Every structure is written in structure tokens, then in C-alpha cells.
Task: structure prediction
Amino acid sequence: MKKLTTRSFKTVSAVLALALFVQIPAAASAATLDELKKERSQLEAEKKTINKSLEQKTNEIQTNQNRQQKIISQLEQLGGEINETNHKIAVVELDIEIANEEISILEDGIAELKEKIEQRNELLRERARAIQSSGTVSYLDVLLGANSFVDFIDRFSAVSTLMDADRQIMREQKEDQEKLEVQKLELVKKKENLEANKAELKSLMASLNNQKKEKKRLVAELEKEEAKLRAEKTDLKEQYHDKVELSKELEEKFLKEQRRLAEVARQKALEAAAAKKKKQSSSNSSVSSGNLPVVSSGHWTRPAAGRFTSGFGGRDIGPIGSKNHLGVDIANSIGTPVVAAADGVVSYVGSMNGYGNVVMVTHSIEGQLFTTTYAHLSGFNTSVGASVSKGQQIARLGNSGNSTGPHVHFEIHVGEWNGSRSNAVNPLNYISL
Result:
């Protein structure tokens, strides 16, 4: 809908502009071209601003992508650490499983020890009950009660066996009790170490997962920001495209106005031919101080008096650099009169980039349209829409724009002047210096 409205507006504007071109008098041409010039300058400034914004958005998108890449690298590193931690947890869980099996074995051993201890305790209790029921009898009484030496030996052997058995029982009882306590301590310590290791790994895993979650959140935000920047960049591109289209339309209007002025020039050329001498005389009486160039016969004359310093074609102009010189240069002092090279109508007066102060005149000579350009001026003696005769002063020589010294830069274009100056020809084919 927006594009349709824009096209409709452009169509209406073109129709109105055409109607105005048909109806407005030549005296209003200055205002028309000045307005077109201002509009063109404004559009160029807007295009530069949009282009700068486009570059800025491109840089912002690149910065955003760099940040995303950095965070993605960190995510990959975190992924590696998480995998390593998962592996460690798996190892610890396997150790815990093995430890549980060992603990089960230990518990079986402890149960067996407890049973053996209980059996020994029962044996000792039986011995104590036997002694209590039969009275206190010492090993010495048993030995002294022997009937013979052989009986003494047998009794001594039996007593020794009993004493050794008692000592063995007591020793094993003590060892088993100590072993039971050691195994219990080992079991408790092993469980505590495994649980602590497992808790530490789980804490590390939680930390890594939190970091991963945060990094993913940052990536999501950056992707959202990138989408916003790309949308803004697309919008700027559309704006720039619209400005380019407007520039094309404006350039077309400018050229149409030049063509209209060319037609005015053609019509007035017929009138100017009859009153040429009178106008030349009037012009000479009103020019500023300085030397006027000698007016040549024929359709063309040189634009200023002075020294020819640079011709048409490629050249190196020092600090400005190498470039294709699309005109000729005539050097003289600042303020030297600059005159129209042929009869015509002034189509442009003002400043233009490297040209500095410039005047353009549209000519119609034997049915052929020409446009002459006079650049680096210090001042103007005419205005847009004015009819001028060959040799009539239109400006003053200067040093404005990209200039290396006081001179007038003079161009001849076959047809209308265009921004690329593709129709510039060597002025020396038309004027004599």
C-alpha cells in the first residue's frame, strides 16, 4: 500500500511539474532550478546519512556475530567439561557400586565374626558354669592328684592342652573384636569418601549446567538482537532504494528543465541574432574591471582572456591526483571576466562539489544542443533563465572548489549535461586559444 501511494504521489508530482514547465515564464526558471538543486542536494545528504547508518548496522551485526561465536565456543568448551564430569560421575558411581559390593562382603564378614565371637562367648560361659558346678579346682590340684608318673604325664598334657585352648580362644576373641572395629571404621570412611566425591561431582555438574543455561540465554538474546539489527538494515536499504528512485526522478526533472531552457535558447537565438551588436555593446558597458577576451567570428568564442594551462584528457594535477580532465583551463588573475562561449540560456548558477562556483549555459546551434560549463569562479554576473550572447560576461574567474590556482575550467557537452559527464568533448574542437 505504501509503495502504491508513493507511485501515485510521484505520478501526480510529474504531471504537475510538466504542467508548470509548460505554463511558467522563463523568468521563473531560476527559482525552479534552484529548488531542484536544493532538493537534489538534500536527497544526496539523506542518501549519505542512510548509507552511513547501513555501514553502522553492518558493523553492529558483525560485532553481534563475533560475540555469538565467542559464546558458542564457550558453550562447546562447557559441553566438553560436562561430558568429562559425566564420565567422572559414572566412574564414581561404579566405584560406589563396587564399594557397596565390598561393603556387603564386609558386612557378611562382620556377621561371621560376630557369630564366632558369640560362639566363643558361649564356650567361655559353658566353662564358667562347669567350674561353678564342680567347685574351684586349680590346674595344680589336677596334677597333684595323679596316681602315678604316667598319670601325671597324661594329666600335665591334658592341662597344657586346656590352657593352650583357653589362651587361643582369648587371643582369637581379642583379634576378632579388633578386626571387627577396624572393618567398621573402614566401612564408614569408605562410604563417607564416596558420598563426598559424589556430592562434589553433582555440585560441579549443577554449576556447569547453570553456566550452559546462562550462555544459551545470552545466545538467544544476541540472536534476537541480530534479527532486530537485520530488520533495521533491511528498512534502511528500502529507504536508500526509495531515495535513489527519487534521485532518478529529480535528475529527470532537472534534465527536462534543461531541455525546456534549451528550447527557450533556440527560440531566443533567432531573436538574439538580429540584436547581437546592440546586446554586445550593452554587455561591454556593464562588465566589471578586467580584460575581456577577443570575440571570435562564428558560433563560438573563448570564455576568458589568459594563458592556456591545461588541455583535455588524462593528466596529473599534483595534490589532487591523477584524473581525466574533461575540459580546458585558462589561467588569469581573480576577477577576470568570464564570458558565454556562444549564444544561449543560463541553465545553472551555483556551487557544485569539486567545480566550486559554476555556471552552465544551454545552447542550440544549427539544431544541435550543447551545454557549456564554467567552473572555479569567484562570482556571478548572471542568473538562471537569463538569455546571454556570445562574448557577454556571465561570471568572474576565481579559485573555488578543487583548484590549484586562479583559472576558469571550461567544458563543452554535446547534448544535456549529466552527472557522469559522459558526453564531454574537447573544447579545442570548437574554440581557438
